[in-house]
Give the backbone structure.
Amino acid sequence: MFKKILVAVEDNDIGMQVFQEGLAIASQANASLMLLSVISPYDERYINPIAMDPYSFYPTLHSEAVRVNLQQWDALQDQMMEFLNSLGQTAAKEGVEAEYTLNVGDPGRVICHVAANWNADLILVGRRGRKGLSEFFLGSVSNYVLHHAPCSVLVVQGLHPSPEKKSVASNQELQVG
């Protein structure tokens, strides 16, 4: 059975779903968790490093932009560490041993690297459900991990709208039109 489970989490709904699934598995298997969050410079949700452009025409503006960017970076790291700490405390309350780490880089590669170094038996990763050009250009972390992981991988599908809500919306549209 699984004894060391790496759970790749983000501070969003999918990340919480992945964490809950990992916690449930670890609790049943009496396994330990490694909670991993990766800040990626390629992700549009995080700080844009373009402000660090060294070829600015106005050196004083460049210095200010770098200072502000570094402050935002520090705040983001603090926020993510607080998030990981809260997940670790939740796991401890459930009787599951958990450690956590925050890394910077390409998420797929970092997840596989940490899993290999920590000797994980299982990796849990979420899937956003990108398709088409979005998946092609932005990549798929879960796809990368599936093909490069040193152990088993469980992909937790992202949240979908319930069919009931969809049908209610469809009925309302029919009545209006």
